[in-house]
Amino acid sequence: MSDDTTTPRSHTTIDTIAEEWLDTEVELYAEMRVELGRPGHEGEFSDYSPAGAEQAALEAKKALAKISAATPVDDVDLITKFDLTRNLQLQLDRHDARFDERDLNVIASPAQNLRDIFDIVPTASIEDWSNISTRLRNLPAAMDGYIETLRAGIAHGNVPAIRQVNEVITQANKQVADSGFFFQLAADAAPDTGELPESLKGELAAGAQLAANAYEHLARFLKNELAEHAPEKDAVGREIYALASRYFVGAVIDLDETYEWGVEELARMVDEQESIAREIKPGASVAEAIAFLDGDPSRKLHGTDALQRWMQETSDRAVNDLAGSQFDIPDELRKLECMIAPTQEGGIYYTGPTDDFSRSGQMWWSVPEGVTEFDTWRELTTVYHEGIPGHHLQVGQATYNKSLLNAWRRQNWTSGHGEGWALYAERLMEQLGYLDDPGDRLGMLDGQRMRAARVVLDIGVHLEKPLPDGTGTWTGDYAFGFLGRNVNMNEGFVRFEVNRYLGWPGQAPSYKVGQRIWEQIRDEYARRAGDSFDIKQFHKRALDIGGVGLDTLKTALLGE
Length: 560
Fold this sequence. Notes:
The structure is a single chain. The longest helix is centred in the first third of the chain and has 30 residues, at 126-155. This protein folds into two domains: 13-234, no CATH class; 246-510, no CATH class. The termini are close together. Strands 2-4-3 form a three-stranded mixed β-sheet. Strands 1-5 form a two-stranded antiparallel ribbon. The protein is mainly alpha-helical. 62% of the residues lie in helices and 4% in strands. The protein contains 23 helices and five strands. Helix 6 runs parallel beside helix 9, helix 17 packs across helix 21 and helix 18 (438-462) packs antiparallel against helix 19 (476-486).
């Protein structure tokens, strides 16, 4: 099964079904309009209530029936049918397992999403700010629907762990304070041209208060109602974990074999790091090499302005170097905006371009409060991960590929495919010579070691497996020390990361597991091609398929 990227093709029945499903998703999830740059329903939110979840499941069942009955006319259709069927069935399986009722974590649940959408809403015109005012006023109703869903979880005995509840209470209370995001958003409101009317300024201030009140309501509900029902144990168990893993990886994996592989991969990363540490400073341990690099002023950036400039310069240089020589990079993808995020939660992330490229892809760095120094040796590989040849090339190429892919295929995203490719891209840049400096290579390995460690940690905790040293069973509390020993980051970073894994089962391993599957597919593809193998052609063919699940990618490229 393969996508023919050279022959123009006509729109098919399956393309229509897929795009109808995308249109349905946009109607169900109003925030997707912002993400895709589609006009209409500005200021609205998704329905986070149980009724909203039931309506989404009903629509998914209708779409599944349509795609199941449709007949593919070419290889592109075969892939679309395969992956849309997989996607819809997985959505229904998650609904049946009541995932929405326990959807509370420190990084990617409605508790964060209701705020995060404001990072990418248009702000250029007075009308844009009027829409923001509407969205602020609509946030309390969306929050009420979310709380109603969490209450349903209490009734069904389906509640997230107390650790997540307490952490989100802290996050919510930050939005309530006068220095919180919503008040700052209203205070800093300014269109690109013209002045905001005084009446709109007042509406924004009132809307900010309503949004802050909604987060106060969430914090109060979590503390006074949900917390007493929340289990102490962080582990979700094998059944929930297996379903979560399918969702994030886009493939069915052997969890026990993957755990054992993760233990071996972690040991290999440690050996590789120790070898490079001795290159940096003869006889040095990894910790000593890191201390040496951290003390090198030539590798230090001071302040977020310097960080943003360095990110942009590094990204622009990679685009200019790789375009044509290693990848076919369309003009529309040669712009990546490197941004400092308005939040201070920690984390680095990418947001894709709109479908018409009126908004380019963007790399965001959420710098924690008080952090003012940054080490280039640690972060060079991050720019490649988020930019080119990582997420920006991957997501942007699918968005650009309108002659081949329907709209649903162009915007589809699976974590194992996306994050796996980004880690694959980091290793690729090493192979291309962009990490020849031992310090930069150590920085890349620091990230790879962390991703290997969290395969072991994530599966270990949630399946309550025996510890690698045989001294007991994995617990959430043990995980903090384990990650701390395997990353060279401060205590705050380790705390946030482990809390993320504990509350978002299956997501963190999808990076390293995804990289493993990408490399397995490439190696088998190369074996079959023999002397005719062309890695540039392989990358183009693979990325032209779009962000499908990894089982779909394997079927598309290898016919398995």
